[in-house]
Write a structure and sequence with these properties.
This protein has helices at 15-18, 36-45, 64-67, 80-89, 110-121, 134-140, 166-181, 186-193, 195-203, 208-219, 240-252; strands spanning 3-9, 30-31, 34-35, 50-57, 72-75, 98-102, 127-133, 149-151, 154-164, 223-227. With 253 residues, the chain is of the alpha/beta class. It has two domains: 1-106 and 237-253, Spore Coat Polysaccharide Biosynthesis Protein SpsA, Chain A; 130-159 and 167-231, Spore Coat Polysaccharide Biosynthesis Protein SpsA, Chain A (Alpha-Beta Complex), CATH 3.90.550.10. A hairpin with a 2-residue loop joins β2 and β3 (34-35).
Length: 253
Amino acid sequence: MEVDVLVLAGGSLERELAGAVDVPHKSLIALGGKTMIERIFDALEGSSLVRNIALVEHAAGFPEEVRRRATTVVGGGASMLASLAAGLAAFEEEPERVLVLACDLPFLTTPALEDWVKRCERREAEVHYCFVSRVLSEKLYPSLRHTWVRLKDGTFCGGGAVLITPGAVARARAAMESLTASRKQPLELARILGLPLLIKLPLGLLTVAEAEKTASRLFGCPVAGVESPFPEMAFNVDGPEELAYARRLLKEN
C-alpha cells in the first residue's frame, strides 16, 4: 500500500524547550549533525511505500533545501487541527490515505515506518493511531520519559504517527475541539467520553478494544489502535530532558 505523507512542522517550541535551543522551530533542532526534519525526510525517502510528501511549516527561517525535499509545502495554521487541514488541502489530488507524522521523531527509521503502515493494512479503519508498549520502550530507551497509560492489555504511550482518510478529519474535528475545550471540565468531559470510560481508565481496567469503540463513537468513523514493536515511533523530543537524552544516544553511536 502506497501512502501520501503529511509532516507537521509548523508548531511553536514548547516553553521549556525554547530556553534550551537557539532555533525558532522544533524541527530545526540539530541532533548528530542533522536537524530533526532532515532525519524525518531521510526515513521517508528510503521507503518504497511513500508517494507524495506535504510539509506544513513556518515560512520564516525554514531552510529552502528542506522545502525542496517535499512534494508540496504549506504554512502552518493557528492550531494543530488547522495545520492538519491545511496540509491535507495541499495535495493536488485528494489522497485515499495520509500518513501524518510529527516532526520530532529523531530516531525514526524506514523499517519502523514501513512495518507500522503494513500493520495498519490489516485493520479496517479510517483512523489508525500508533502506540508503543512500555516494556519495549524501556528496553531500548530506559531513561526516556513518557506519559504512560495503564490499560487492561498493558501499559502504553502514544506514537508520533497517525494514518487517516481525509474525510475522517472533517468528521472528527468537531469532537477534537470539544475534547480540547472540555479538558478542565470534569462533568462535560464525562458527558462526552462516557462515565464508564472515566471510571475504568484510572483503574487500569479499560481495554484497547473499548478505547477504540469510544473513539469511533466520538469521531464518527472507525478508529483502530495499531501497536508498533519499534519504540523509535514514540521517541518524541518534548523538552530539554528528551533532547539531552537523544544527543547522548547519538554521541554514543
